[in-house]
Amino acid sequence: MSSSEFLSHFLFTLISFALLLTLVGAVKRMLLWSQGQSSTIHWLGLLQIPRRYLVDLHHVVARDKYMSNTHVATAGGFVLSSILIILLYVFQLTLQILTWALLGSSLLMFIGSIFVMLRRRNPPPNLSLGKWQRLPKSLMVFSLSFFILTLPATGILPSDTGGWLLALLLVAGIIWGIGEMFCGMTWGGPMKHAFAGALHLGLHRRQERFGGQSTGLKAIDLSSKKLGVEKPIDFKWNQLLSFDACVECGRCENNCPAFAAGQPLNPKKLIQDMVIGMAGGDDAKFAGSPYPGIKVGTHKGGAIIPIVNVLVESETLWSCTTCRACVDACPMMIEHVDAIVDMRRFETMEKGQTPGKGSEILENLSATDNPNGFAPSTRMNWAADQNLTVFGHNEKKQQVTQADVLLWVGDAAFDMRNQRTLRAMIKLLRAAKVDFAVLGDAECDSGDLARRLGDEATFQRLANSNISTMNKYSFNTIVTADPHAFHCIKNEYGEFGGNYNVMHHTGFFAELVSQQKIKLDNSKELALTYHDPCYLGRYNGEYDAPRFLLESMGVKIKEMERSKSTARCCGGGGGAPVTDIPGKQRIPDMRMADVIETKAEIVAVACPGCSAMLEGVVEPRPEVKDIAELMLDALIEDTGEDMVGAQV
Amino acid sequence: MAQFDALFQPLKINQLTIRNRVVSTAHAEVYATEGGMTTERYVKYYEEKAKGGVGLSICGGSSVVSIDSPQDWWKSVNLSTDRIIPHFQNLADAVHKHGGKIMIQITHMGRRSRWDGGNWSTLVSPSGIREPVHRATCKTIEVEEMQRIVGDYAKAAGRAKAGGLDGIELSAVHQHLIDQFWSPRVNQRDDEYGGSFENRMRFGMEVLHAIREEVGRDFAVGLRICGDEFHPDGLNHDDMKQVAAYYDATGLLDFFSVIGSGCDTHNTLANVIPNMSYPPEPFLHLAAGIKEVVNVPVMHAQNIKDPNQAQRILEAGYVDFVGMTRAHIADPHLIAKIKLNQIDQIKQCVGANYCIDRQYQGLDVLCIQNAATSRESTMPHIIEKTEGKVRKVVIVGGGPAGMEAARVCAERGHDVTLIEKNPELGGQITIASKAPQRDQIAGITRWFALELDRLGIDLRLNTAADEVMIRDLNADVVILAVGGQPFLAQNPHWGQEEGLVVSTWDILSGKVAPGKNVLVYDTICEFSGLSAADFLAQNGSLVEMVTDDIKPGAAVGGTTFPTYYRSLYEKDVIMSSDLILEKVYREGDKLVAVLENEYTGQQEERVVDQVVIENGVRPDEEIYLQLKSDSRNKGQIDIEALYAALPQPILSEEGEGYILYRIGDCVSQRNTHAAIYDALRLCKDF
User: Fold this and answer.
1) Cβ distance B494 to B488 under 8 Å?
2) Which end of chain B has a smaller Cβ tally under 10 Å, C or N?
């Protein structure tokens, strides 16, 4: 038997065995996922895998051009090579074209793997080391082995080239390569991401996010035995699957404001901890950046072991601002925020362990329908001199039951800073002759804060209360300056029967400006940058309307490096200012540093939370102004008609 | 509770919702008018407060309801004729436009007025007892007159309502006719309007019922009362509680406004508008006492100037509304600045009482530190950035004129350098603030210093400017505001050259230590002489205060000289008038001051250790004269443009070199207001 004959027979056995082993691993892995709670299985999604891979996933990967090209070559080469290897060596199809194709695909993969290797010479801190440092070598060994193996078959080299020595070397290389690339996929190697990732793309819990948007938190049944996630098995099965998809690229870590601020959260580590929880073990082998301030190797977990304070410290969960920067950056479409809120729900509703001022805020919401415990009857105090039309049935008080616009006031009503924005909005609405009314004292907090703090019960109560109030009246559009209320009403009230046309004030005003109903002085030469609110931008994809408005005033925006979908959170979301987990620096200070870098004198905001957080940065610093306030400064008023209501 | 929440709780007065708890209470403005009809100036003054966010303004302190209550002394509003109604409509519209509310105080002043003018009315009072502050003799009022006046009240209230005002406040304070009936001190009648409590209350009750009949129940009607007359023979706090409860029990009143102290003597008058010598809210307890016995909102104004103080008072529930009246004269945008988180930018009233002291002289109410107040037609409260060229402005002298010039120019967006030779800003304000009970005057400087810091000007302290330095700065505009020096050289016999006399500045600034036995000679009779005497006495000197004027401090206003007098008399300061200081000479280790009686020519001598002279300020003209000839305008201000509040014509002319102006005491001694006004009106158009 010549060395080439040996190789051919041996490879059949080896690859078949490897495939079998891979299958066994796959079943074991699936059993791990199946420990999770039931969730709709979207079988049809499996058919969408190639499209989701090539479009949705690639769209994210492509934000890093180097890595995108590298991955196309490596992964493309690998997928193609694998198919050809199976056809050539398992099914023994000896078509010459397949041989040539394998030569090409393995070469492509090899070239890709060189770039993987180059990147890992001085890996940036967001990349995990450990087994991930092995991967480029495995990729090269795999591709090179098959490339060399294929050379004689194409006739480029004579058969039996290299003799037994090379044959043995190739055997060793192929065992290594296939072990990593095939078996590793299902036995916990770095290639797990390909296997779990592909399935995750198909069976994703949020099918609607492909080709669309799905950012609202999912409701839970308040009558269920356990509220929220205590142990890994309390996650839905497809959430467990999603954790396995993590490729440890650390893009989430790069974008996480809490991590950057030195708070004990690293989204990548969190997902890896979830994997540890699901499969059992400890975090000693985690080779990426730790949670700031918490040593790696000190935590362990298991599928039926409570997560918090065993596997993950509660501070980690409560550091999250729910800004979705991690989710947005994740090429594997993992939903970190869902997982965090799921665990917070258990902490809050089952254990009553909301930290910091969290429990006080939740009590306030229960007692007064607003987070800071103001008397509900004082909700309209700010507007005592505004002569607002209020929805209601008391005609003596000039209440109305219908209006074109329902102006959602939000908790800015209680905050002197953000009352300025409200007053500006009112003046603008009046200038545009918009028929609008407010809910007055009947408006409750949208429930955003309660929900992100894990108090789903309070959220649902507030949502239902608001929905039943709003359903008494007829209106076409809800307009609000608060992106959090905007998001809740638009994306989260639907599950409770509240379906409305909701607009953020920037979107609404942008329409009025383009229709010439609001005329703005377009010669404002302001050194200005714009800060995208997370709940307007990443949550709802609105990046253009605020910029359109600013440009309508003649402003040339000095964009920050982190803007639009990569905008850095102000630190104000998800109840983070309330739970107040200490870090090395404050998120709003970092954001203000981003602003200062642009040399802007004004930072335009479009969210009451952002204005509060950024104005909380010590002076001297650029001025913080809501877009409505800037618009009011630029408003060209029709003369001769007096506006009613005070400006300050 | 957030920092200022208590201020921003709306509260209803009858059918009105007042947007916050801050009120500008009634005061005489002294710019109503011809014949008591409100003018554009009047409307704009109140509009500015409404624009600035105040909840409620009660205008027209002591606005008269009857033709025999003279109004032209203080140009108060005249509600005795229907002619006033359209004027009210303008006023109401201007305030309502900004979400504010406006009421007017109406009254018949009875004996508290002057008869020697206008209609030459015979003043009326329950028992014809003369009022000392106005030297007002009066007749004993007859029942027929009372009936007429009750009717006048009702008609006046009807006019306020017809004019669209939001309500009226009846004045039964300051010893007006209603409370003249109340007070046994001046009501010695033995008919049904005197004697028993009910009888003394009767006239006021008739007024109230008549008004209600006229305006109905839904129109806001309040009553301003004092909390204690502070006269042994007058109404004390318990009496006033009884009065308040009695009127409240009618259910016809919608609010009470409470003032501490009566005011028919000079000494009690000073309590009513407490100057800077008083502690914060000195009479709050009296208002709180009234609040205990009534069922409608109570407001109180007296030395409430600071938002934190207002919050504290409201949060503790002493009263329902705080009057921040002088606070709004100093800064009509006080509420707006709270809301805009610009607390540090609030120009806080310092209690100099320039406003009220002018009013008592029948002059228009102005603010010592805010020259835009009541000049809203011509002077801006908010200085807009220039749209013209940015100029380099060099200002020399950091007193009130220089600080205001620097502020206004910086707000206009110019490149401002302010040079001050002393280590701190303030000029003469700094010296004035050294006297006992006068420290708060430094609040004027404090505000300017904060503003100039915020505006980021080039401030050069400890720098004595000279001609060369100024020329080297290559300014487009040079403003000299260098003040002057005490004018001790006027009479060579005073012996300034020999070092026999020192100035009040020397004493107050601490440059010269107080002597043991001191003669203060004050020919000016403003604050500085009294302050120096008080300072010396405070530091243990035996002081005689001598003036050639009719009395020491003759030019100090009616709410301020009493607090000086209290302090000086208490420290055994001797006060001598009508004596001219002729000469000072040394005799051994003592000084002899030769004084001559102006009216007899008789001379007398005083043997003392120290002679302190206040003879005003001699302008410092040196730098001006050096720079004048090369300047584009030869140092001249176009006063036609200045007085018309128009830009200086030279600003729009092309030219090389610098324009030179001088303002404040370096031109001629006037006062803080004059210095600030000149700076504002000159610089607002740069």
Assistant:
1) yes
2) N
Residue A586, Ramachandran bin (φ over 0: left; ψ between -120 and 50: alpha; else beta)? beta
CA atoms within 13 A on the CB side of A513: 25
Judge whether A308 lies within some domain.
yes
Average pLDDT over residues B243-262: 97
- The token duo for A115 is 């770039």
Flag whether the ipTM exceeds 0.85: no
Q: What are the pLDDT digits (tens) for A229-272?
A: 999 999 999 999 999 999 999 999 999 999 999 999 999 999 99
Report the distance separating Cα B125 and Cα B69, nearest Å.
11
Is residue A138 located within the same domain as residue A270? Answer: no
Tell me the C-alpha distance between B508 and B485, whole Å: 14
Strand partners, B604: B595
SS3 B575: strand
* A19-38 exposure pattern, b = at least 16 Cβ within 10 A, e = fewer: eebbeebbeebeebbebbee
Nearest CA in chain A to B341: A417
Tokens of A606: 């479009």
As beta bridge partners, residue B575 has B545
* Domain boundaries B488-615, corresponding CATH code: 3.50.50.60
Query: Which residue in B has a C-alpha nearest to residue A387's C-alpha?
Result: B99
Mean per-residue pLDDT for A354-369?
A: 96
Residues of chain A found within 8 Å of residue B51, distances taken between Cβ atoms: 646-648
Beta strands B139-140 and B167-172 are: unpaired
Yes or no: say if B490 and B523 are a contact pair by the CB < 8 Å rule: no
Instruction: Give the nearest partner residue to A420 out of B19, B97, B339, using CB atoms.
Output: B339
Residue B109's nearest CA partner among B65, B151, B152 is B65
Among A382, A645, A648, beta carbon nearest to B340: A648
Global pTM value: 0.88
User: Choosing among B4, B339, B387, B455, which should be mutated to test the A contact, i.e. which has the most A CBs within 10 A?
Assistant: B339
* B563 CA: distance to closest CA in chain A (Å): 38
B20 neighbourhood in chain A, CB within 8 Å: 384
Taking contacts as CB-CB distances below 8 angstroms, the residues of chain B near A385 are 19, 98-100
Alpha-carbon gap: A450 to the closest alpha carbon of chain B (Å): 21
pLDDT score for A1: 65
Q: For chain B, list residues whose CB is within 8 angstroms of any CB belonging to chain A.
A: 2, 4, 8-10, 17-20, 50-53, 97-100, 333, 335-336, 338-341
CB contact under 8 A, B339 and A419: yes
Domain limits, CATH 3.50.50.60, in chain B? 488-615
Query: Top-level CATH class of B5-360?
Result: alpha beta
For B576-616, the pLDDT digits (tens) are 999 999 999 999 999 999 999 999 999 999 999 999 999 99
Q: For an interface test with B, which of A381, A414, A647 has the most B Cβ atoms less than 10 Å from its Cβ?
A: A381
> Which of B492, B446, B679 has its CA nearest to residue B585?
B492
Detail the DSSP E strand segments found in B55-166. Answer: 56-64, 101-107, 124-125, 139-140
Domain of residue A493: give its range: 368-514
**For A199, how many CA atoms within 13 A lie in the half-sphere containing its CB?**
21
User: CB–CB of B19 and A615 under 8 A?
Assistant: no
Same domain, yes or no: A338 and A458 = no
d(CA A150, CA B355): 102
List b or e across A463-486, with b for residues whose CB sees 16 or more CB atoms inside 10 angstroms.
Answer: bbbbbebbeebebebbbbbbbbbb
Contacts of B99 in chain A (CB under 8 A): 384-387, 644-646
Counting the structural domains of chain A, the total is: 4
Nearest CA-CA partner of A504 in A519, A488, A520, A493: A488
Confidence of residue A646 (pLDDT cuts 50, 70, 90): low
